[in-house]
Design goal:
about 50% helix; 9-stranded mixed β-sheet; elongated; about 950 residues; 6-stranded mixed β-sheet; Rossmann fold; alpha/beta; single chain
């Protein structure tokens, strides 16, 4: 448990330092919503001035609500192009007595026809054009060519007309009676067809058949009122052309209407709670339309009798054609879309940070030094949650301070819960996508596409489907499974409720309204809460099975109790089968190593830090290529205090072997144990006692050398004075202390300094086994010698495996050396043993003029008949002289005699070097393959 908290402490401190370096970027991100909200607040203030006055909380409107009544010669009649039942005969056009037609449909015909029959009422005629109350009480309208009261002609729609014309002597206004006709249609499709034929086809033929309005009552009942409306909006409201149009009122166009209806219903219902429940289950429709008022009054009278009535006294404007944007619509668009973008802009930051650690292999580096999956997930998630909550707090605070209605009018608790849940969902979604992507640029492009695409698609597609009452609610919920649409739906509901509350001077969304079936906030909160948990679980699963930067892939059923046992059983079988099928001829020292390992596997010995037996790695062939066996059954035992060097040409498999031992690659077969722990099943425990210096430096560019060592020291359970002392000693040992180098950012380090820091990281915390992959690459001679001294001193208490191409390094550091060629050891032993075994020759070199080359060969043959020429370039020749055939005194005497016969520019006699052994072993193996 103590080690667990040390890991979490290490990662938390590292994250704090890392993000402190990016404080300026974080500040810019936080200030972005502040600037945006100031602009939106200014726009809101301007938009509000056009919709309402400063002092009156209720809307002050300019003229009474009026319909646009089709002219008598254009009212719908029976014709060849309009073969629809119930329409009057065309002869009524001659007398001007054609009724105005209203089409009705819905799921319940009885209720639909009953409600529709109450829409046209007998009301007194207006005494003057200023008698707004009288006009508002009835169903009045102007000719389609006039849209205000400055017209001298009004139509009054009644159930029946006793007189066709009334004259107002005061204002000289003619009031013409128009009879209303309700016709039932079986579906909204039939209504759309009738409207199309009457307007579009009629317009092309020069004979219009205009419908006053159409109502689809959908699932309206005694407890639920739900209606889609289409009404006449021809001529006067069309700003661009004279083509007749109908304006469809969306189901959720404006939040204000339920509030106004609540006031009306509360005057007729003694039970206020029932009235509130009824009114807030109504469609959120456009308050500025008389057609909606007509059908609402009819519905109230259907429920409560003829005395119940809601009066809409004034409207601000006549309906505009579909597709034109009103100021309120533009405000809604800007609010919801920009709020969506502002909230989602944290998502690319989180995703990029996670993928950055994965692409740069920093996650693996941390894990190889002991960081477990649970501390990583817990601290990383908690850290991003804190960052996101700080950002969202600033977002919410700026919104309240700038006076935006969506923040001020809606319940603070509703908003806080909504933002908190989505913040967690956003982090979970970032973890989920981080398990899929391994390239930072690709992840960033996808993240920003999600951000901007969500806002645009939400407004252009998703919002229209939410508004469409005919669109199945189940499909809306299905679309909300995408987190971006859940966010958009929640913001849309908050915006609509805030707009409605503002229009009538009340609050916006409160908790009680979430029980309303038309309110989508409850379902959004449920969906986001469930997805929050599901995404985290799926993210962790994918992280384990597809190796998203955390090391070896685990089996697809790793969470089952028996899965690990099955994997181990199959591994053991494959190990023994591989051992039995291995028929390659091994040298004596390699065979001895195998026998020793087999004995250690039967009787484990505590003095050995690492043991591997018949370890293999197979890469499956692709595109028709054969399988590649990169490591062909390595068997090796490393006692404590030994530094083992692996020499081999490029591509021999050294790095693949190191990667298997450090958990980067999963062995195809074979077994290995580190400090008595199974490499296959106990790798997480092995990490705590392991140090790694990878072939390529894996460092955070914005952390200093000291901060790197502090972080990895904490992972190795160092703390307090012991941690500070270990860090200071490492910095001094690797010459990273003086000149402020220790506190310089790693991105400013030279290649050699980064390499020294990587070696220092591998040794801090007293690891029991250390893997170094070409540790001295890129170092100058002085730095290389200093590094060698540190490593040589460090090997006393631990086992070290290093790969190198430097023979001097191998001879200076390594107690044993293995020459690794074509995926396996060709020989094992100390430097002197290898020289004695593979280099029982003197190397004789002589340089003369080219024409004396044959004389040199004759001279060498006299020294040793079995001499072998290994090199010849121009006048320089190199020979191997068997030691058992040559005396050193004979060599010196022969050379002295040769100088008397022909000029000798230079000559030399040397014992076999490790480099000679390496070349010889590699060459012989290559020749044996061919």
């Amino acid at each position: 448990m103590a080690h667990f908290w040390n890991q979490t402490n290490a990662l938390f401190r590292k994250n704090l330092v890392y993000h402190r370096r990016h404080a300026r970027s974080h500040l810019k991100v936080i200030l972005f919503p502040a600037i945006l909200f100031i602009l939106l607040g200014s726009f809101q203030s301007y938009s509000n001035k056009t919709d309402r006055t400063k002092n009156d909380p209720i809307i002050k409107l300019e003229w009474p609500p009026l319909l646009q009544i089709p002219s008598p010669q254009f009212r719908a009649v029976m014709s060849d192009s309009m073969p629809f039942s119930g329409l009057p005969d065309a002869s009524c056009r001659g007398t001007g007595s054609c009724p105005v037609t209203v089409l009705i449909t819905g799921n319940n015909r009885t209720i639909g026809e009953s409600v529709a029959g109450k829409m046209f009422i007998d009301s007194p005629e207006p005494n003057s054009t200023s008698d707004f109350r009288t006009i508002a009480d009835g169903v009045f309208g102007t000719d389609a060519g006039g849209d205000r009261l400055d017209s001298n002609l009004l139509y009054h729609v009644r159930p029946q007309c006793s007189a066709s014309l009334f004259r107002n002597s005061t204002s000289e206004t003619d009031v013409i009676c128009a009879e209303g006709l309700n016709l039932w249609r079986n579906s909204s499709a039939e209504i759309n067809d009738e409207l199309f034929k009457g307007y579009r086809e009629g317009n092309t033929q020069g004979i219009l058949n205009e419908i006053l309005a159409a109502y689809d009552f959908l699932d309206t009942s005694g407890e639920n009122f739900n209606v889609n409306i289409q009404f006449n909006s021809t001529y006067g409201s069309n700003l661009f052309n004279d083509e007749p149009e109908l304006l469809r009122i969306p189901r959720s166009e404006n939040m204000v209407y339920p509030y106004i209806l609540f006031y009306a219903a509360s005057r007729s219902f003694t039970n206020k709670e029932k009235a509130s429940k009824l009114c807030f289950s109504l469609p959120q429709a456009l308050v500025k339309s008389l057609p909606l008022t007509m059908v609402t009054n009819a519905y109230l009278q259907f429920l409560r009798g003829a005395s119940t009535k809601m009066v809409l006294d004034f409207v601000a404007e006549m309906p505009v054609p579909g597709g034109l944007l009103r100021p309120g619509d533009l405000s809604t668009f800007l609010n919801i879309v920009f709020y969506t973008w502002v909230i989602l802009q944290v998502f690319p930051v989180i995703l990029s940070s996670l993928v950055y650690e994965k692409q740069r292999k920093l996650r693996i580096m941390m894990k190889m030094h002991g960081l477990g999956d649970v501390p990583y997930w817990m601290i990383t998630y908690a850290y991003f949650l804190v960052i996101s909550l700080i950002y969202m707090s600033c977002y919410f605070g700026f919104g309240v301070l700038t006076g935006l209605t969506i923040f001020k009018l809606n319940s603070y608790s509703v908003q806080c819960i909504f933002y908190f849940v989505f913040t967690n969902l956003q982090i979970s979604m970032a973890f989920l996508l981080a398990a899929v992507f391994s390239n930072l640029k690709t992840a960033a492009v996808v993240a920003y596409t999600i951000v901007f695409g969500t806002g645009i698609l939400g407004f252009l597609l998703f919002q229209s489907l939410v508004d469409d009452a005919s669109f199945p609610r189940g499909w809306v919920i299905f679309m909300e499974l995408y987190p971006g649409f859940s966010l958009y739906r929640g913001l849309y509901e908050l915006s609509q409720y805030a707009r409605g509350g503002y229009m009538v001077g009340t609050s916006g969304m409160i908790w009680e309204y979430l029980s309303n079936s038309n309110n989508g906030m409850r379902e959004v909160l449920i969906i986001m809460s469930i997805e929050w948990v599901v995404f985290l679980i799926v993210s962790y699963y994918l992280d384990q099975v597809i190796s998203s930067g955390s090391g070896n892939r685990r089996s697809l059923l790793f969470f089952l109790p028996n899965s690990q046992r099955k994997d181990l059983t199959s591994l053991e079988k494959s190990s023994f089968q591989s051992a039995e099928s291995s028929v390659q001829i091994e040298n004596g020292d390699v065979s001895e190593e195998r026998e020793k390992v087999e004995q250690l596997l039967e009787k484990p010995h505590l003095n050995y830090s690492a043991i591997c037996y018949n370890l293999k790695k197979m890469y499956r062939g692709k595109d028709g290529n054969p399988d590649k066996l990169a490591v062909k059954g390595v068997t090796l035992a490393l006692p404590r205090g030994e530094c083992f060097g692996m020499l081999g040409p490029n591509g021999a498999g050294k790095t693949t072997f190191i990667s298997m031992m450090t958990g980067l690659l999963k062995p195809s077969s074979g077994s290995a144990y580190v400090e008595g722990l199974n490499l296959r099943t106990q790798m997480n425990k092995i990490y705590g006692s392991m140090g790694v210096c990878p072939q390529h430096d894996l460092l955070w560019d914005t952390l200093t050398g000291r901060e790197h060592l502090l972080f990895y020291g904490r992972l190795k359970n160092l703390k307090g004075a012991a941690l500070s002392e270990a860090v200071e000693n490492s910095l001094k040992s690797f010459n990273l202390f003086q000149g402020g180098v220790a506190d310089r950012l790693a991105k400013k380090y030279s290649g050699g300094m980064r390499r020294r820091l990587s070696v220092a990281i591998s040794l801090i915390g007293d690891p029991k086994v250390v893997y170094m992959d070409e540790p001295s690459t890129g170092l100058d001679p002085a730095s290389r010698k200093m590094l060698w001294d540190v490593v040589k001193h460090a090997k006393k208490d631990r086992a070290i495996i290093l790969t190198t191409h430097s023979m001097d390094e191998a001879e200076y550091l390594c107690d044993r050396i293995g020459i690794f060629v074509d995926g396996n050891f060709q020989c094992l032993g100390t430097s002197d043993e290898l020289k004695a075994r593979y280099g029982g020759c003197y190397m004789f070199t002589m340089t003369t003029s080219p024409e004396n080359g044959s004389k040199v060969e004759d001279l060498v043959k006299r020294l040793s008949p079995n001499a072998k020429k290994t090199y010849h370039l121009y006048g320089t020749q190199k020979f191997e002289l068997p030691k058992d055939e040559v005396k050193l005194s004979d060599v010196f005497l022969t050379v002295r005699q040769a100088k008397e016969r022909f000029p000798v520019q230079s000559w030399g006699l040397a014992d076999t070097t490790l480099e000679d052994v390496f070349i010889k072993v590699a060459t012989e193996h290559s020749e044996s393959l061919h």
